[in-house]
Amino acid sequence: MTQFGNPPNIFALSVTIDRDFCHSGHAKRAFTGDRALRALAWNQGRGMLRARRRTYVIVAATALCAVLAIPWALFSSARHVPAFYRQALASNADERRRASDDLLRRASDLTNIARRERHWSGRFTDDQVNGWLAVDMVENHPELLPNEFSEPRVTIENDGLRIGCRYKAGGISTILSLHASAYLVEPNLLAIRLHGARAGALPLPLGRILEQISTAATDMDLRRTWRQVDGDPVALVELSSLGDDDTALVVESLELGEGSFYVAGRSEPRTAEQTARREAVQPLQQSAGPNRQR
Prior knowledge:
Radius of gyration: 42 Å
Structural class: alpha+beta
């Protein structure tokens, strides 16, 4: 029988191979590659952690800015002064007084014409109206304006009116503005349609505005009712009380243009019905008067 010698020692062989492999360049490269993979994985983990932290910081900063920006935006919006109101305030004291005197003179002339003649007409500018609001109303009729309101001004446009005033009460100071249109539904029935109100640039509910219009109509001996047109409140104001005890003024035409308005009508003897309607408003006016005193 042929002898092949002792079988190889597998363990010794594996140790020898491992030792030779470890001392070879292949082992060094394998070890270095493993460390590189572990370092890369660790760096990627740290990078993801940093990115997550940056995201949290950005989200928190954005939320904080939003929280701080909301009150500031509301404050800035409430302090906004509409361009039409700023322009209406631009005249000086002498110009305002001249405009006020001019309106009073033209109104007096129109009243005298209406007493003498059957038909009458006149045109008035928003400068004249603003002059009267700034001078004669303040000096002679301060009770027409509630304590919280001051410096009312109006701008007349082709599509309606823009009315503004300063409001100050309870630590709040802003410019209130109102966009409205005015037209005649029929002779001596004036419609005032309210399109919107703002405090600075912030939209406002119209409830308080409606109350002020109702009070003003009562103070002027004018009957009014409220309707709605496409969601807009409309005040229907009867003008039957215009004139004196003997003569009624019937307004037949009202036209708004850029910077002025035109009014025309006729004069006629006051009927018993007109007299009764005029007198019916007097108790309302007298009861409302004391509450409007400054």
